[in-house]
Amino acid sequence: VLLAVSATSDPTGVWHKFAINSEGRNANNTENTYPDFPGLGLSQSAVYITTNQFALTKGCLTTDTEGCYFSDAWIRAINLPELLAGNPALNITTFKHVTTALGGLAFALQPALTYGSPGAEFLVAADYSSDPNTKLNLFAINTSGTPTLTSKDLTVPSFGLPPDAPQPNGSPIYTNDFRILNAVWEGGYLW
Predict the structure, then answer these.
(1) CA angle (83 as vertex; 79, 88 as ends), nearest 5
(2) What is the pTM (predicted TM-score) of this model?
(3) Measured distance CA(75)–CA(59) in Å, rounded
């Protein structure tokens, strides 16, 4: 995952650039995993990067998607002052094999852009355990001291996969899924 931050308030000037190794191993430590669907969150103390890790199998390399499978979700917390200073040896806290409050694998975590100082970074995901569903998976990482991750499920009105979008004289556009694409914490509320 590539991350860059301007060295000053002038975005046309110098940038600090980082390449964050996101290759991992599955829970059984039998296959390599690679990142997909990255998310970016920001608070006053850290940058948060989330990824879905997929197993990089031989079948995945020889066919379109056959043989590729979801392994787990990762969250990385990176100290913001280190990024702003351009420190090449970043201190990164990584949470691997992230699970929901009920113990299922988390999927497509979206970290919030955080305005203010709520004391935690919040992340949200639509629960993928069924379609339709009535749960959002909420996560929090404390922003002072040693980062720790907590989770809770929130019951919401039913949601499900959207229908495909019809197109005149052609195949429909696949609308795919109900992953959350943005999250914001502001004024005591998670949007």
Answers:
(1) 105
(2) 0.89
(3) 27
- pLDDT, one tens digit per residue, over 6-58 is 999 999 999 999 999 999 998 888 888 999 999 999 999 899 999 999 987 77
Q: Which residues have a Cβ under 8 Å from the Cβ of 130 and sit 6 or more positions away? A: none
Asked whether the beta carbons of 144 and 71 are under 8 A apart, the reply is no
Q: Are 43 and 121 in contact (CB under 8 A)?
A: yes
- Tell me how far apart the terminal alpha carbons of the chain are, to the nearest angstrom: 26
| Kind plus residue range of the DSSP H or E element containing 33 | strand 32-42
Q: Which two tokens stand for residue 118?
A: 């709520």
Could you tell me the two tokens for 98?
């992230």
Q: How many CB atoms lie within 10 A of CB 22?
A: 17
Q: Collect all residues with Cβ–Cβ distance below 8 Å to 33 and sequence separation of at least 6.
A: 23, 24, 25, 26, 53, 54, 55, 56, 71, 72
**Distance between CA atoms of residues 8 and 46, nearest Å:** 17
Structure tokens given for 131: 């379609």
Q: Which residues contact 83 (CB under 8 A, 6 or more apart)?
A: 3, 5, 16, 18, 47, 90
Contact 36, 52 (CB under 8 A): yes
